[in-house]
Write a structure and sequence with these properties.
It contains six helices and eight strands; from the N terminus they run ααβαββαβαβαβββ. With 219 residues, it is of the alpha/beta class. It has one domain: Vaccinia Virus protein VP39 (Rossmann fold), CATH 3.40.50.150. Helix 2 packs parallel to helix 3 and helix 5 packs parallel to helix 6.
């Protein structure tokens, strides 16, 4: 019953406050904890459908900021003037198109991408999606930028944390209250991008060691 109440709480709240999905509160809570998105920032939202995170980011960056979304689906919702949305695949889409739409490289990259859940192997596919983001992060952001991306916990979760810590000074796993209790989803938050690192790990399953700060927390 408690889990159902949790679902109802955020579902109803999203309807009342005009958000396209209850997932809006996940980004709100991530930002309340880490303060990743600020006024005037350029934000890239990967896997942006149905658009709830675009709505949240648009409010946070204000009129002087820019929000760019990318999704495999055609997102046709009407957003504020500071939002641009493109249809495409993160693995192959032209990065320059995204950067031009934002007016420069991004200050923050966020991702709520998830595989089509089938049960077995979802965590591995989820980690592979996150790895694709890490593979392209150097093209998208400037040093000092931040990242928040969803992953399903499994055997590759901790190695993915370690790979993320190669390119971000501080890395944490964070589960917002808006996530359902039964969900294995957690958000990897990387702060203070270091810049491209030669010989970076580019595929799931590669092991590595790191001396960066890696923590996990639940809120």
């Amino acid at each position: 019953m408690a889990k159902r109440v949790l679902h109802d709480e955020y579902f109803k709240k999203a309807k009342e406050e005009g958000y396209l999905a209850r997932s809006a509160y996940k980004l709100i809570q991530i930002n309340e904890r880490f303060r990743l998105i600020k006024s005037g920032y350029r934000v890239l939202d990967l896997g942006c459908a149905p658009g709830a995170w675009l709505q949240v980011a648009s409010k946070l960056v204000g009129n002087t900021g820019r929000v760019v979304g990318l999704d495999l689906k055609d997102v046709r919702e009407k957003f504020q003037k500071n939002v641009r949305v493109f249809q495409g695949d993160v693995r192959t889409f032209d990065v320059n198109t995204l950067i031009e739409a934002a007016g420069g490289k991004f200050d923050v990259v966020v991702s709520d991408m998830a595989p089509n859940t089938s049960g077995a192997g979802d965590d591995l596919v989820s980690c592979m999606l996150c790895q694709e983001i890490l593979n392209r992060i150097a093209e998208l952001v400037q040093p000092g930028s931040s990242l928040a991306m969803k992953v399903f916990e499994g055997s590759e979760y901790k190695p993915l944390l370690n790979r993320t810590s190669r390119v971000f000074k501080q890395v944490k796993g964070f589960k917002p209250k808006a996530s359902r209790d039964i969900s294995r989803e957690i958000y990897i938050v990387g702060e203070h991008y270091k810049g491209p690192i030669e010989g970076a790990i580019r595929k799931v399953g590669d092991a590595m060691q790191t001396d960066a700060s890696v923590e996990a927390e639940t809120e």
